[in-house]
Design a protein that fits this description.
Number of strands: 0
Number of domains: 1
Largest sheet: none
Strand content: under 5%
Number of helices: 1
Shape: flat
Helix content: 40-55%
Structural class: mainly alpha
Radius of gyration: 11 Å
Length: 38
């Protein structure tokens, strides 16, 4: 399964990182990997 790249703003990328980190810290996800380039 491959997902297409999505253009995001720096603000949206930072928000996605914060959301992923929060989900991992709460135990909602075991791990996460997010690639984005500001």
């Amino acid at each position: 399964m491959s997902e297409q790249p999505v253009a995001v703003t720096v603000e949206a990328g930072l928000h996605a990182e914060q959301d992923l980190l929060a989900a991992v810290c709460k135990g909602e996800k075991e791990h996460g990997l997010l690639f984005w380039r500001p």
